[in-house]
Write a structure and sequence with these properties.
6-stranded parallel beta sheet; alpha/beta; Undecaprenyl pyrophosphate synthetase
Length: 228
């Protein structure tokens, strides 16, 4: 049987807050360590020559968290982009965002847009951050766009072309850390046939060996897409 290879890997990076709580540290400590884990996993995907990686970074629902935590997350995101934009450029990573970036604070949005611009001609890994993202909202926005376009008949291809990033292929594998068994409004349309891998480890503890296990498992999964 031919082994599968991952074209698009998506990750729900869950458990930063719980990880920090277990260590009697503030939630910000968990987010900071989670950002370092993300950096390691991105680098590992570059080594494995994965074409697409999407990270669920900040959901639409996360805006309901305490303002102090939101501010910390936005500052951390801006700081990471400031530090890593040059590395992304040198490593041939093309930075991308899916979601309502107009919701982001101005300074954070500026860093997002400048990193997209700086790496737009890169041809390696397409790194997509889901920011102010919700799967249901994406589908609603797609329908509103279709209404404005006066489309009379809708099929899958037409709807897909009105999603936030229609050029992104559907994810082959979705990893969720933190031991939770749900998608949490992540890539609902795109995940129709995605394989799902649940890790009981909180995101800051997820490492290169864990990623290797995911790839090994994916290689041997039988993907029929509803066929025999």
């Amino acid at each position: 049987m031919r082994k599968n290879s991952i074209n698009h890997l998506a990750i729900i990076m869950d458990g930063n807050g719980r990880w920090a709580k277990q260590k009697n540290q503030p939630r910000a400590f968990g987010h900071q360590n989670g950002a370092q884990t993300a950096k390691k996993i991105i680098n590992e995907c570059v080594k494995k020559e994965v074409p697409y990686l999407t990270l669920y970074t900040f959901s639409k629902e996360n805006w309901s968290r305490p303002k102090e935590e939101i501010d910390t997350l936005m500052i951390l995101l801006s700081s990471m982009l400031k530090k890593e934009a040059g590395n992304m450029y040198r490593n041939n990573i093309r930075f991308n965002v899916v979601g309502r970036i107009e919701d982001l604070p101005e300074k954070t949005r500026d860093w997002v847009l400048s990193t997209i611009e700086k790496t737009k001609n890169n041809t390696g890994l397409v790194l997509t951050l889901a920011l102010s993202y919700g799967g249901r909202q994406e589908i609603i926005d797609a329908f509103n766009s279709l209404i404005k376009s006066n489309v009379k008949i809708i099929n899958e291809e037409i709807l897909k072309n009105h999603l936030y990033c229609p050029e992104l292929p559907d994810p082959d594998m979705i990893i969720r850390t933190g031991g939770e068994y749900r998608l949490s409004n992540f890539l609902l349309w795109q995940s129709a046939y995605a394989e799902i891998y649940i890790s009981n480890k909180n995101w800051p503890d997820f490492g290169e060996n864990d990623l290797k296990k995911v790839f090994n498992e994916y290689e041997n999964r039988n993907r029929t897409f509803g066929k025999l």
